[in-house]
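New to this. Comment on this protein:
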Amino acid sequence: MNDYAASVYLREISHQCRYFIGAVYQLNFAYEGYQNQQQAGDETQQAFLQGEVFRALHSLLNHAGHISRLLWPATDGDGAQARERGAALRARLDLGEGEHLLDSDAFRGYGEGFDRQLDDWLAGVPDAHQAEAAIGPLQDVASADERGVLRWYDPEGRQFVFLGREYDIRALVASIDGLMEKADKAAGEALEASRTEGL
């Protein structure tokens, strides 16, 4: 991969990190509003803001998934070019295999095959134990079993469960903060090197 191409990919990783951080701000803002409306007793606004909490969570996981697929592309099928791209970018960011939270199928596959994942979730959980969305400690959720909750957010522990898969939002924020700094630096170095290529 030449330096210019590397700079484009690295800048995109940096952008996706920033979009992720923006979604975290949206999450915090929506959750604060949700709490305020809960105290005020406005069920209409509370329902709207509950949706905004989950929209922000899905948004930040979507951006994390983009980063994961750029750096650790799926290895199935004939993806030699993607694997080479991922290896070249990881080398520029000094990231080894298995050394980053995003090096996981949980992020790589986020959102892909959602319809089949929802089918599987519905088939595996008895109707009486299903809840579509919940915010708060798990023991306060009607089913009291995270497998029976389509989406659940624990703001105290900063845990998000979606279709039975748990995401540690606090750990994810820390890992993406560090990656954004590395991507910014590496993108600048690659762009500078591309300007001197061929001289």
